[in-house]
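> Could you send the 3-oxoacyl-reductase prediction when you get a chance?

Sure thing. Input:
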Amino acid sequence: MASDRVNQIAAHLNYPKGMLQGQVAIITGAGQGIGAEIARLFANEGARVVVADIDEKKSASVADAINKSGGKAIAVAGDVTNPDYATTLVKKTAEFGNGKIHIIVNNAGYTWDGVIHKTTDKQWQTIVDLHTGAPFRLVRAAAPYFRVKDGEPRNIINISSTSGLHGNAGQANYAVGKAGITGLTKTIAKEWGPSYGVRANTIAFGFILTRLTAAKEEGAFVTTPDGEKVALGIPGAQKKAKDGDKGNEYPDIPLRRPGTATEAASAVLAIASPLSSYISGQTISVTGGRNI
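Output:
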């Protein structure tokens, strides 16, 4: 049995047109930023991509761009915190993928910061559910497409953060949500790896240039399901204090710079690809050396 499994894996190490050729991937939060880059890179490697995002226009735009460049993608807009969305997303993905789903990237998320003694129950529950409950529901809904023995690769990648590994002042809710997703990942690897060969890994990002790390004064925000606006980003004064004096920016990052969305997405592609076929249950830090 073990030798048969090794032979099946070896057969998938040589894709004729791309590392993800013939695979079907769901990427949440793919309407912009890192998620959109993951979708683009996956499509470039031959995957049929489902762009999942709460913003219908943005998700459609990403899917359209992929299709125009010769890839294959559809947009399935919806709120990952809505319990019914996972079922809809899985159903439409399976239809698009001719009855198969190979990859899930749980990337959707945002921050709603506050020091512990001022964090409301709503802030806490919204962020914890977004970063742990929503990925769990999607994985559970997709279980029939992963708990299969057809010899094809199956892969779940959950996005975490250094806040989940080390904690972060002002982000108790986010830190708990991002720490929790690592526990879910390891459990998937232990439950679905032995019989079905499913790989599950977590990628923890450090300082990546996105709307979550831009200056708060730039005015980016998200709207919660009940209509409340949540400002995104880091206050200018706080960013300046962290980045240090001019000429010594990002002193806590050995590479002395933040990462780009493309660099972050490339790490996800690397773990999804057959180049990482023996990596499972791990948390990979993508930080430019930060926190070592």
